[in-house]
C-alpha cells in the first residue's frame, strides 16, 4: 500500500532538462551552458549507478544481497580493479577503495560505456557519536568548507552534489521495509546532513548502515537495504525517470 502511494506521489521529471542540473554541470565542463542545454541523449539508455566497496561490510553486504537477486549479468569492463553488474536499468559497480575517494564515477562510466547515468547511489557505513543503530539516507558534498580547507572525507571545499530527487520516496520506502523486517524501533531511520564526498556530476545519495562495526555487519540490515533497491528495480515507474 505504501509503495503504491509513493509511486503515485512521484512526478515523472527528466532532471537533465532542469536548468539547475545544467548550471551545476557547467561549473565542471568546458562546454558553454547553451550547448549543455541543447544536448539530448534519446539514443542512449539512462541508467542508475549503484557503487559499493569491498572494504566496508555495510557497503558490500547490501550489494551482495542485491546481486543474489535474479536477473544479474556481468557488466562491461570498467577498469581492472573494479567489477560491474547489470540488471535492467541498474548498474552495480564494486571497488576496493574507500567509498569517498573515487571521484566522478558517473562521468567515467558514461565515457567507458556510452550509457547516460541518471543518478548515483552509494552504499556505506554510518558513524555517529551516539553509536546508536541507524539506517540513513543523505545527499553529499562539503559546502560548509572554505577554500584552503582539507576535506577529511573527500569532495572539494564549497562543493555539493545535486541531491537525488528520490531521497524522500526512498527514505519512506526504507522505513516501510525496515518495519516489515522488525528492525524498527531498534534501528532509527534518519535523513542525514551532507558532509563528505566523493565528487559526482549527477544527482546523488548515500544509503548507510550505522553506527558501529557490529551494526555494519548486520545481515538483516543489509537485506533491508538490498530490498529497497530491489523494490525500485522491480517497480520501473518508481520515480525512475526523475
TrEMBL record:
UniProt GO molecular function: D-aminoacyl-tRNA deacylase activity; metal ion binding
Keywords: Hydrolase, Metal-binding, Zinc
InterPro entries given in the database record: DtdA
Pfam families: tRNA_deacylase
Organism: Medicago truncatula (Barrel medic)
Protein name: D-aminoacyl-tRNA deacylase
Amino acid at each position: 500500500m505504501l509503495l503504491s502511494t509513493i509511486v503515485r506521489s512521484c512526478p515523472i521529471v527528466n532532471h537533465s532538462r532542469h536548468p539547475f542540473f545544467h548550471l551545476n554541470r557547467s561549473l565542471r565542463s568546458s562546454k558553454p551552458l547553451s550547448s549543455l542545454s541543447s544536448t539530448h541523449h534519446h539514443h542512449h539508455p539512462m541508467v542508475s549507478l549503484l557503487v559499493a566497496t569491498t572494504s566496508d561490510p555495510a557497503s558490500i553486504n547490501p550489494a551482495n544481497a542485491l546481486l543474489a537477486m535474479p536477473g544479474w549479468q556481468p557488466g562491461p569492463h570498467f577498469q581492472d580493479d573494479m567489477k560491474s553488474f547489470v540488471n535492467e536499468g541498474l548498474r552495480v559497480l564494486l571497488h576496493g577503495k574507500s567509498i569517498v575517494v573515487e571521484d566522478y564515477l558517473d562521468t567515467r562510466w558514461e565515457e567507458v560505456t556510452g550509457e547516460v547515468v541518471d543518478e548515483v547511489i552509494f552504499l556505506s557505513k554510518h558513524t555517529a557519536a551516539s553509536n546508536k543503530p541507524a539506517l540513513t539516507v543523505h545527499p553529499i558534498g562539503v559546502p560548509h568548507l572554505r577554500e584552503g580547507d582539507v576535506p577529511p572525507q573527500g569532495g572539494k571545499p564549497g562543493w555539493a552534489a545535486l541531491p537525488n530527487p528520490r531521497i524522500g520516496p526512498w527514505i519512506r520506502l526504507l522505513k516501510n521495509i525496515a518495519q516489515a523486517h522488525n528492525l524498527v524501533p531498534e534501528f532509527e531511520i534518519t535523513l542525514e546532513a551532507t558532509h563528505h564526498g566523493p565528487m559526482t556530476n549527477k544527482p546523488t545519495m548515500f544509503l548507510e548502515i550505522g553506527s558501529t562495526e557490529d551494526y555494519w555487519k548486520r545481515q538483516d540490515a543489509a537485506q533491508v537495504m538490498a530490498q529497497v533497491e530491489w523494490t525500485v528495480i522491480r517497480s520501473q515507474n518508481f520515480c525512475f525517470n526523475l
